[in-house]
Design brief:
Number of strands: 5
Distance between the termini: 18 Å
Order of helices and strands: EHEHHHEHEHHHEH
Number of domains: 1
CATH class: Alpha Beta
Strand content: 5-15%
Largest sheet: 5 strands, parallel
Radius of gyration: 17 Å
CATH topology: Rossmann fold
Shape: globular
Number of helices: 9
Length: 202
Amino acid sequence: MIGINMDNNMKTKIFIGLTGRMGSGKGEVVKILEKMGFKYISLSDIVREEIAKRIPGGRHVSRADTQDIGNRLRKEGGPGVLGKRVRQKIESLDVERWVIDGIRNPAEVIELQKLEGFFLLGLDATLSLILERIKSRKRGTDVEDDDVLLAHLEREWGEGEPEGGQQVGKCMAMADYTIENNSSLDDLKIDVMKILAGLNIF
């Protein structure tokens, strides 16, 4: 566990990293923290920038495309490259509190741990609930049947992935805190607030 204490006369930098399966509730945690003044950034932003460069406009971008390009970036720049790029962006800006989404490889965690005041929050839920959430949000990359979505979830967790690929399962094992998000949004907010209260940042 990590504790962050704040002197009344000092600002404390805090960086909350999020990891977990797609559909586990990371986006909802982002919304909670943004309302509290946290600035949002995602490692997936780096992947999307590369997609814009590498995939011709107008072609449908699948979940597999995004996974492949993320893995290619890690292969070219090292497994922690996405975390490094995000860390450098954060260090270049005078913002005290960040929520960092899209962490999928342990090397990314290690890069972000170089930020003093960083901790990792892992989110999970039952697979049946995750599938329900993914299909209900109706993103372009989510319009697939259960078997295909389960294959993506297994790949994201680390099944059949190289060391430098997606390894969400290993990231979850590195989390300072975890939330089993199997209930309501109100319960999720309560869980998040309990963690923040334990960090003594307000």
